[in-house]
Amino acid sequence: MKTELDPATGLLPHQVLPQVTGARGSSQAMIQRFLVDIDPTFARSQYQLFRDKFVTGLGIRECPKGTAGRGDVDSGPLVLGMSLSATVVGMGAARAHHDSLANRLSRTGELVGMPFSGLRTKRYLFGAVPIGDAFLAWSTSARPLVATDQPAGEGSSGWWRLPWLALLWLPVLLLWGALRLRHRGRRRK
After folding, report:
1. How far apart (Å, rounded) are the C-alpha atoms in residues 73 and 55?
2. What pLDDT, on a 0 to 100 scale, did the predictor assign at position 35?
3. Number of folded domains in the chain?
4. Res. 130: pLDDT tops 90
5. In 10 A of CB 187, how many CB atoms?
6. Are residues 187 and 113 in the same domain?
7. Does residue 85 sit in the same domain as residue 131?
8. Burial class of residue 66, CB neighbours in 10 A (0-12, 13-18, 19+)
Protein backbone atom coordinates (compact mmCIF):
# COMPACT_ATOMS: atom_id res chain seq x y z
CA MET A 1 0.00 0.00 0.00
CA LYS A 2 2.93 2.35 0.50
CA THR A 3 3.19 2.59 -3.30
CA GLU A 4 -0.49 3.58 -3.65
CA LEU A 5 -0.66 6.58 -1.29
CA ASP A 6 -3.09 9.38 -2.06
CA PRO A 7 -0.96 11.99 -3.90
CA ALA A 8 -2.93 14.91 -2.42
CA THR A 9 -2.44 13.95 1.25
CA GLY A 10 0.30 11.30 1.36
CA LEU A 11 -2.11 9.04 3.28
CA LEU A 12 -3.50 5.62 2.49
CA PRO A 13 -6.45 6.09 0.12
CA HIS A 14 -10.10 5.54 0.97
CA GLN A 15 -10.54 3.15 -1.95
CA VAL A 16 -8.20 1.44 -4.41
CA LEU A 17 -10.49 -0.57 -6.68
CA PRO A 18 -12.04 0.11 -9.18
CA GLN A 19 -10.08 3.36 -8.92
CA VAL A 20 -8.00 5.10 -6.30
CA THR A 21 -9.97 7.69 -4.33
CA GLY A 22 -8.42 10.18 -1.94
CA ALA A 23 -8.09 9.85 1.81
CA ARG A 24 -11.22 10.47 3.89
CA GLY A 25 -11.62 11.07 7.61
CA SER A 26 -13.89 8.09 8.31
CA SER A 27 -11.52 5.58 6.70
CA GLN A 28 -8.41 7.34 8.04
CA ALA A 29 -9.68 7.14 11.62
CA MET A 30 -10.08 3.38 11.24
CA ILE A 31 -6.74 2.98 9.44
CA GLN A 32 -4.91 4.98 12.12
CA ARG A 33 -6.50 2.85 14.84
CA PHE A 34 -5.05 -0.39 13.45
CA LEU A 35 -1.94 0.68 11.52
CA VAL A 36 -0.03 1.28 14.76
CA ASP A 37 -0.16 -2.48 15.42
CA ILE A 38 0.78 -3.44 11.86
CA ASP A 39 3.71 -1.10 11.14
CA PRO A 40 4.49 1.28 14.04
CA THR A 41 7.12 3.28 12.16
CA PHE A 42 4.92 3.90 9.11
CA ALA A 43 1.99 4.53 11.46
CA ARG A 44 3.79 7.45 13.13
CA SER A 45 4.21 9.34 9.87
CA GLN A 46 0.69 8.48 8.67
CA TYR A 47 -0.85 9.56 11.98
CA GLN A 48 0.91 12.93 11.88
CA LEU A 49 -0.33 13.53 8.32
CA PHE A 50 -3.84 12.52 9.45
CA ARG A 51 -3.67 15.05 12.32
CA ASP A 52 -2.43 17.80 9.99
CA LYS A 53 -4.99 17.18 7.23
CA PHE A 54 -8.17 16.11 9.09
CA VAL A 55 -8.18 17.13 12.76
CA THR A 56 -9.76 20.46 13.70
CA GLY A 57 -10.46 22.07 17.04
CA LEU A 58 -13.96 20.59 17.05
CA GLY A 59 -13.52 17.09 15.64
CA ILE A 60 -12.37 15.15 12.59
CA ARG A 61 -13.28 16.29 9.10
CA GLU A 62 -14.47 13.84 6.47
CA CYS A 63 -12.54 15.64 3.72
CA PRO A 64 -9.04 17.12 4.07
CA LYS A 65 -8.85 20.72 5.27
CA GLY A 66 -9.58 23.12 2.42
CA THR A 67 -11.86 20.70 0.55
CA ALA A 68 -15.56 19.97 0.81
CA GLY A 69 -17.58 16.83 0.34
CA ARG A 70 -20.77 15.05 1.22
CA GLY A 71 -21.54 12.52 3.87
CA ASP A 72 -22.30 8.91 3.02
CA VAL A 73 -22.84 5.57 4.72
CA ASP A 74 -19.24 5.55 6.02
CA SER A 75 -19.12 9.08 7.39
CA GLY A 76 -22.73 9.61 8.37
CA PRO A 77 -24.12 13.12 8.13
CA LEU A 78 -21.50 15.86 8.18
CA VAL A 79 -21.78 18.70 10.69
CA LEU A 80 -19.71 21.70 9.56
CA GLY A 81 -17.69 19.25 7.42
CA MET A 82 -16.97 16.97 10.36
CA SER A 83 -17.92 13.32 10.56
CA LEU A 84 -19.29 12.19 13.89
CA SER A 85 -18.26 8.60 13.17
CA ALA A 86 -14.72 9.66 12.21
CA THR A 87 -14.51 11.72 15.38
CA VAL A 88 -15.56 8.82 17.61
CA VAL A 89 -13.30 6.29 15.88
CA GLY A 90 -10.54 8.91 15.72
CA MET A 91 -10.67 9.11 19.50
CA GLY A 92 -9.66 5.43 19.58
CA ALA A 93 -6.88 6.09 17.07
CA ALA A 94 -5.58 8.93 19.23
CA ARG A 95 -5.62 6.64 22.29
CA ALA A 96 -3.70 3.96 20.38
CA HIS A 97 -1.12 6.62 19.49
CA HIS A 98 -0.94 7.96 23.07
CA ASP A 99 -2.12 11.35 21.82
CA SER A 100 -3.82 13.91 24.09
CA LEU A 101 -6.28 14.49 21.24
CA ALA A 102 -8.18 11.47 22.62
CA ASN A 103 -8.98 13.32 25.82
CA ARG A 104 -10.06 16.43 23.94
CA LEU A 105 -12.39 14.43 21.69
CA SER A 106 -13.77 12.59 24.73
CA ARG A 107 -14.51 15.88 26.50
CA THR A 108 -16.20 17.22 23.38
CA GLY A 109 -18.42 14.13 23.31
CA GLU A 110 -19.33 14.67 26.94
CA LEU A 111 -20.13 18.30 26.21
CA VAL A 112 -22.28 17.94 23.09
CA GLY A 113 -23.24 14.24 23.07
CA MET A 114 -26.16 14.65 25.47
CA PRO A 115 -25.06 11.82 27.75
CA PHE A 116 -27.72 10.11 29.85
CA SER A 117 -26.65 7.85 32.71
CA GLY A 118 -28.85 5.14 34.14
CA LEU A 119 -28.12 2.89 37.07
CA ARG A 120 -25.79 0.66 35.04
CA THR A 121 -25.54 2.31 31.65
CA LYS A 122 -24.51 5.50 29.93
CA ARG A 123 -25.96 6.44 26.58
CA TYR A 124 -25.41 9.34 24.26
CA LEU A 125 -27.98 11.20 22.18
CA PHE A 126 -30.61 9.73 24.53
CA GLY A 127 -29.68 6.21 23.35
CA ALA A 128 -31.10 6.88 19.87
CA VAL A 129 -27.97 5.54 18.12
CA PRO A 130 -26.84 2.35 19.92
CA ILE A 131 -24.11 1.65 17.37
CA GLY A 132 -22.63 5.05 18.25
CA ASP A 133 -22.55 4.04 21.92
CA ALA A 134 -20.80 0.80 20.95
CA PHE A 135 -18.16 2.62 18.90
CA LEU A 136 -17.66 5.09 21.73
CA ALA A 137 -17.05 2.26 24.21
CA TRP A 138 -14.66 0.62 21.73
CA SER A 139 -12.73 3.86 21.17
CA THR A 140 -12.59 4.69 24.86
CA SER A 141 -10.95 1.35 25.61
CA ALA A 142 -8.53 1.47 22.64
CA ARG A 143 -4.92 0.58 23.33
CA PRO A 144 -2.20 -0.52 20.92
CA LEU A 145 -1.74 -4.28 21.02
CA VAL A 146 1.84 -4.43 19.77
CA ALA A 147 3.43 -0.99 19.56
CA THR A 148 4.39 0.54 22.88
CA ASP A 149 6.90 3.14 21.78
CA GLN A 150 4.50 5.70 20.34
CA PRO A 151 5.37 9.31 21.08
CA ALA A 152 3.24 11.28 23.51
CA GLY A 153 1.03 13.82 21.78
CA GLU A 154 1.48 17.51 22.34
CA GLY A 155 -0.55 19.17 25.05
CA SER A 156 -3.64 21.10 24.15
CA SER A 157 -5.03 24.28 25.55
CA GLY A 158 -8.58 24.67 26.82
CA TRP A 159 -9.53 27.10 24.04
CA TRP A 160 -11.20 24.29 22.07
CA ARG A 161 -14.18 24.62 24.46
CA LEU A 162 -14.99 28.21 23.52
CA PRO A 163 -16.95 27.60 20.27
CA TRP A 164 -18.95 24.77 21.86
CA LEU A 165 -19.75 26.74 24.98
CA ALA A 166 -20.78 29.73 22.88
CA LEU A 167 -23.02 27.52 20.76
CA LEU A 168 -24.60 25.87 23.79
CA TRP A 169 -25.07 29.07 25.79
CA LEU A 170 -26.35 31.21 22.89
CA PRO A 171 -29.98 29.93 23.11
CA VAL A 172 -29.97 30.42 26.89
CA LEU A 173 -28.67 33.97 26.59
CA LEU A 174 -31.17 34.82 23.83
CA LEU A 175 -34.06 33.47 25.91
CA TRP A 176 -32.82 35.35 28.98
CA GLY A 177 -32.55 38.58 26.96
CA ALA A 178 -36.03 38.15 25.51
CA LEU A 179 -37.50 37.55 28.98
CA ARG A 180 -35.71 40.63 30.35
CA LEU A 181 -37.10 42.80 27.55
CA ARG A 182 -40.57 41.40 28.07
CA HIS A 183 -40.33 42.04 31.83
CA ARG A 184 -39.16 45.66 31.24
CA GLY A 185 -42.03 46.20 28.82
CA ARG A 186 -44.58 45.06 31.43
CA ARG A 187 -43.05 47.33 34.11
CA ARG A 188 -43.39 50.43 31.89
CA LYS A 189 -47.12 49.91 31.24
Report:
1. 20
2. 95
3. 2
4. no
5. 7
6. no
7. yes
8. exposed
72 shares its domain with 28: yes
Whether the pLDDT of residue 154 is over 60: the answer is: no
Relative to beta strand 82-83, strand 78-79 is antiparallel
> Do 22 and 107 fall into the same domain?
yes
Helix spans in 77-160 (H): 84-96, 101-112, 130-140
Residues in CB range of 169: below 8 A, 6 or more apart: none
Instruction: Quote the domain boundaries for residue 115.
Output: 2-156
Shared domain for 116 and 172, answered yes or no, is no
Q: Which residues of 99-122 are buried (b: 16+ CB within 10 A; e: fewer)?
A: bebbebbbebbeebbeeeeeeeee
Q: Is 104 found in the same domain as 34?
A: yes
Q: Are residues 95 and 184 in the same domain?
A: no
Sign of CA dihedral 73, 76, 82, 129: negative
Q: Are both 99 and 178 inside the same structural domain?
A: no
Phi, psi torsion values for 40, nearest 5 degrees: -55, -35
Tally of CA atoms within 13 A in the half-sphere of 91 that contains its CB: 24
Percent of the chain with pLDDT over 70: 89
Structure confidence at residue 51 as a pLDDT band (50, 70, 90) = very high
SS3 123: strand
- pLDDT for position 31: 96
